[in-house]
Amino acid sequence: xxxxxxxxxxxxxxxxxxxxxxxxxxxxxxxxxxxxxxxxxxxxxxxxxxxxxxxxxxxxxxxxxxxxxxxxxxxxxxxxxxxxxxxxxxxxxxxxxxxxxxxxxxxxxxxxxxxxxxxxxxxxxxxxxxxxxxxxxxxxxxxxxxx
Length: 147
Fold this sequence. Notes:
This protein has six helices and four strands, in the order αββαααββαα.
């Protein structure tokens, strides 16, 4: 398979990339370029990345679940991995579960102290998430001959 210059550059950028801390996020330098290159390669590769985003989010969900404060269980039931095509996310709460934000971030006017359990887990699992991305991207690069 012949690669265009953007695909070659994306693979090179990934190999040279580093993990960047963005407070509440994990950003992988070069990931955007790799995803752009995968768009040209195949739909299967894009789906592989979406599955990787789901797995990364699930790492955080699994570790955060024991830390979720439970009264009715609704907040606990609402935490989930919510992958998008270009990024992984962890969702907590919903339109009908409005107290998720105040529980996590606090609400001083109502004397609700913050309990940032998702961020605490994220801080402790950055290495595991970045290792997952590194493994999966290397597999995709090899699979699609992007080296």
